[in-house]
Amino acid sequence: MSDTPILIAGGGIGGLVAGLAIASSERPVTIVERAGKLEAVGAGLQLSPNAVHVLRGLGLEKEIRAVAFRPEAIRIMSARSGKDVARVPLGDVIEQRHGAPYLLIHRGDLQNILLSAVEAHSGINLRLGASVRDAKQDEAGVMVNLETLEGSDHLRAGALIGADGVWSTVRRRVMKMRQAAFTGRTAYRAVVQIDDVPAGWRNCTGLWLGAKAHVVHYPIRGGAMFNIVAIVQEQWDEEGWSTPADKNKLLPRFADWPKELVQLLDLPESWLKWALCAMEPGDIRVEGRVALLGDAGHAMLPFVAQGAAMAIEDAAVLASCLQAADDVASGFSEYEEARRERVDKVMRTASDNDRIYHLGYPASLARDAVLGRITVEKMLSRYDWLFGWKAE
Q: Tell me, what CATH number does 126's domain have?
């Protein structure tokens, strides 16, 4: 086994999972993260069984279950009528069906669990306050130029993995690939105390479908807090891609939605908003000893709640391919081949849901009627291909 480390750019969920997965085969890993301190950006995220299987394999399931929430169902509701359109069982049903639970978790809680595992692993070196500026590869490895708080530095690595998010430096500067593009959708996110939320919403994921907008809400922090996400079609005229949001500008977008939902949106004292950016399916994600992972390689709309799950899956497959391959380049090539079809299908499913969720009247009536007639078994089986995945 080579003593030259695998360098991972990015200390988010994908980068930390990749570090743990690769280091489990006794290959040294260095993770570099731009931030001087790892702080969670965002709020809640959904961990479907396909992601939980990977985290279980890393020995982290017990810690994750302790801070996560296991919802009983997904309630799909109409923004026009306020009534339930369909109900997809989760809880015991999904856990028995796929051998792992469907969990809801605060991003910070998951990141802290991963960070503790990374810091406890002797084979992983975590460098905060450092980021990749550029890199050049040759037949023997990759020379990576870093920017640090003390100035420029460089590091010799056996390979470079770009897990540095939607605005990946590895993607742009090293691989010379186009970045993600704004999709015309903005996500507004907030968290409130669960005691302020109607009791009927406290044990499930809620999905409200409306014209040119939808809302998702669910419990996090073991059921103590409630995560709210409102996604609307609009232009982005802010300087950055994430910024505090004005509730008084958000609420008028939902003025004609059901009263109880408007009251929920009025609860948070503060909101943050993100411009949703995505890539097209089929991008090349590997080049020799350089590979992309998670949003750096396939940023997608959150309309199938699989952004974090796909990064976690990527990490498991990449580590497995590296361990089985005779050399890094062939391992990366195998990783790309193994992931392309599945990731592209998830990206297309998210794009399809974008169109379906935001249908206006009268097309929404037909959508709701179809959803209302689908049997529970058929509803569950539609996503067996997604939730039933396990890393080989």
A: 3.50.50.60
Distance CA(121)–CA(230), nearest Å, equals 38
Which tokens belong to 108? 């910070």
Active site residue 218: yes
Position 250 in a domain: no
Give the residue numbers spanning the domain of 301: 6-180+279-387
146 falls in which pLDDT band (50, 70, 90)? very high
Query: Strand 225-233's sheet: what is its strand order?
Result: 84-89, 73-78, 205-210, 213-220, 225-233, 181-193, 271-278, 242-245
CA angle 205, 299, 76 (to 5 degrees): 20
Q: In terms of DSSP bridges, do strands 73-78 and 84-89 run parallel, antiparallel, or are they unpaired?
A: antiparallel
- Residue 43's pLDDT is 82
pTM: predicted TM-score of the whole model, two decimal places = 0.96
Average pLDDT over residues 92-105: 98
Residue 76 lies in a domain: yes
Catalytic residue among 188, 218, 335, 383: 218
